[in-house]
Amino acid sequence: MNERQPAANASVAERQRKIIHIDMDAFYASVEQRDNPELRGKPVAVGGAAARGVVAAASYEARKFGVHSAMPSVTAKRKCPDLIFVKPRFDVYRGVSQQIREIFAEYTPVIEPLSLDEAYLDVTDNLKGMEIATEIAEEIRAKIKAATSLTASAGISYNKFLAKMASDQRKPDGLFVITPKNGPAFVEALAVKKFHGVGPATAERMKRLGIETGLDLRQQSLAFLQEHFGKSGPYFYGIARGIDERRVQPDRVRKSVGAEDTFVEDIFEFEPACAELLPLADKVWRYCEAHGMSGKTVTVKVKYSDFTQATRSRTLGTPIGGAAEMLEVAVALLASVHPFKRGVRLLGVTLSTLAGNDETARPQLELSF
């Protein structure tokens, strides 16, 4: 990547940005293996082993068997009979995450955490005066290893989408660069189901439209993508061309954190609908973990095939303690609208009445997944 700075009087907006995406390798599981030598080299899942448990993270040894985060624990155990379940220690993970965040802050104040274990950094202008983003990423990875004994992977590119995609290329403990020259070609060759921002339902919908690769996506008009994917259409149009104008956004306080998913086919039965709530609760809780907050009110949104919708909420006496508890409440709320009056096309889970560790309420903002 040609990362030399242009003339000093040019604004950041007029220059090629330098974005780093840092992603810790199997973070929760790696912390557990670091702290307990008996777990090293073995398949480990962080989460509850009970029937309603959820895998919060899986070691690379467990991933070889198909175990992954947000998977029901019973499914994970079936895939890997020797799987070792470890109860999560979120206070420990937050402490390690804070160590890592302090390393990031040595290089730039423009940090956008996505969870406890990953973040975007804009190093176009950086505190070290370093011109090469790849060198910054290498230094950060080395400092993380020295401070925590954990490994991190890094992606470097000129926008957030490509930096995120790059960090997945050499995992674990790797680094990958996507240059402005190579960006469009990299996207063309990639399967759309691997795109950040394209979930399983959207990937399936794209497949039905004959869109399976970045090149297929690039061949579609903006009007076509807007027609079939609504407000996401312009985003898909841009990333198919290696374009992503989103800025790295430092922390913003929130009072409501939500996630939702639209399905390729309507859901009519209760059990499949419950299964779709699991990754939504996991996604919401991961954000809360990363920001040291929880909430007391769980809301489930159900949108039917005719676009009418129902919402149900429950406020607990104490803050939610984890994804499994949130899921349990969400399932109970979903049960209150079952049997469904028609097919379900969308489900959403929101956690509100949020407060940080100091129980200070935060102003309302919406989190889009």
Structure, explained:
With 369 residues, the chain is an alpha+beta fold. It folds into four domains: 98 residues, 2-Layer Sandwich (Alpha-Beta Plaits), CATH 3.30.70; 63 residues, MutS, DNA mismatch repair protein, domain I; 57 residues, 5' to 3' exonuclease, C-terminal subdomain (DNA polymerase, domain 1, Orthogonal Bundle); 100 residues, DNA polymerase, Y-family, little finger domain (Dna Ligase, domain 1, 2-Layer Sandwich), CATH 3.30.1490. Helices cover 35% and strands 21% of the residues. The protein has a five-stranded mixed sheet with strand order 5-6-1-7-8. It has a four-stranded antiparallel sheet with strand order 9-12-10-11. Helix 6 links the parallel strand 7 and strand 8. The two termini are 30 Å apart.
Structure, briefly:
The protein has helices at about 25-35, 60-65, 75-80, 90-105, 135-150, 160-165, 185-190, 200-210, 215-220, 220-230, 235-240, 270-290, 325-335, and strands at about 20-25, 45, 55-60, 85, 110-115, 120, 150-155, 175, 255-265, 295-305, 310-315, 345-355. The protein is α+β, with helices and mostly antiparallel strands.
Task: Give descriptors for this structure.
disordered C terminus, globular, five-stranded mixed beta sheet, 21% strand, 4 domains, MutS, DNA mismatch repair protein, domain I, 13 helices, Alpha-Beta Plaits, disordered N terminus, DNA polymerase, domain 1, 12 strands, alpha+beta, 369 residues
